[in-house]
Structure formats: structure tokens, C-alpha cells
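Give me C-alpha cells for this 263-residue protein.
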Amino acid sequence: MTRLTKLAPGSALSVVYWLFAIYLMVPLLLMMLMSFKGGDFIAFPITGWTTEWYGKVLRDTAFLSAVGYSALIATATTIGATIIGMWIALLIESGGARARSVIFALAVLPAVVPGLINAISMRIFIRTLDIPTGTGAIILGHTVHAVPFVVIMVLTRLRTMPKSLGEAAQDLGADNLTAFMRVTLPFLGPALAGGMIFCVLTSIDDFVRTFFLGGYQATLPMLIFAKVQGGMSPEINAMATLVLIATVLIGLYAERLTRRGRT
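Here you go.
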């Protein structure tokens, strides 16, 4: 009886976990199934199966243009957020206790503020500075949002770094810059790579900030949103499935790098 009592909480948690996993997976599976539907509209039952929607999507110049534009924005965002995030993390680690708390709180604030509020404030900011909406404004907004992810990952890695590594480099005659480039930066490599991948994912998936800061050229989320306004179709499901597969692959790779960064 005692043994059953001890197992019960764990079993209940397992049931809750699997129910939650099913709750998350079922809509995604239905979306993927609908991308193979033979008709022009989404409805059950699925009477015919086809892959023509994927061929149509891969030949769609608007889709390919949106993918390229989103990749351009994600690349610029990742470079900017990685440099700024790493610098902030190093600043936090080298400061006093009070300074660390203040700087860290300010650095992660964009990840805590609701996306809609952040987008509105960024729109007001660029209007104040007379920055036109478009690519530059989107990159600025995405970079602000992505910096906290880099800061957290780099800080986590930094706090596992033995201080003796830097001291040994300096004892061997290396100055601060040389010690950073040859010791600290390689040590931070896994964390930086994982942070960069998260920057790519958040940028490509960011709809709200892009909506408020974007111009006339559509990113991938904006293109899908525009197509949804005309009604759901298997073509939209095919687009979403391709994006989902790419995101999952990138996310799994990021998780692998994160695990390496913890070791």
C-alpha cells in the first residue's frame, strides 16, 4: 500500500504530461494531414491525397521571396543580437553584485514585456527618430527581442568557466584581448551557437513586431497571414508544414548545442 502511494503522484504527473503532449501534437498532425488533401478547401473527411500543394508552394515566387527576405532579416538580427548579447553578458559578469542585477534586469526586459506592447513602443521609437518602416526597423525590433536569449545562454556558460583558464593565458604573456580571443571566445562557442539559432527562430517566427515595423515586402509570417485572410486552404497548410519541419530541425540542433554548452 505504501509503495502504491509513493508511485501514485509520479504516475499522475506522467498522465498529465502525456495528455498535454497529445494536446500539443494533435493540432499539428491535423495541419500536416490537411496539407495532403486533394480538394481546395479544408474539411473532413479527407477523400483524396496529393502532394501537389507542396509542389505549388515550392514554385510560388511570393513564398520563395518571403523565405529569402525572412532569412535576410534573421541573419542580420542574429549577428547584431549575438554581438550585443555577448558584450552585455561579459559586462554583467565583470560588474559588482548591484550592477549585475540592474544590467541583467534591463537586458532581459524585452523578453518579459508582451510582444504587442513592445511592438507599439518600437513603432513610436522609430517614428520619433524618423526611421522609416521596413527592413531596418524590423531588424532593430527583432534584435532588441533576441538579445535576452543570447545574454542568458552566454551568462550560463560563463559561470561554468574556470577562472584559471584566463589567468593561465595571462601568465603565459597574453593580453586581455588575446586571452579573450583564444580562451574565452572558444569556450563560449557552444553557447553562442545555441543563442544564434534561437535568434534565427525568434526572428523568423516574429509576426507582431514585423506587422508594426514592416514595409511593403512580406516576411514569411506576413505572407501566411495574408493568405489566411482569403480562407484556409491546403496550400497554407503545406507552407506551415514546411516551416514547422525547418523549425523543428533547427530547434533540435539548438537543444543539442545547449546541452553541449552545459557540459
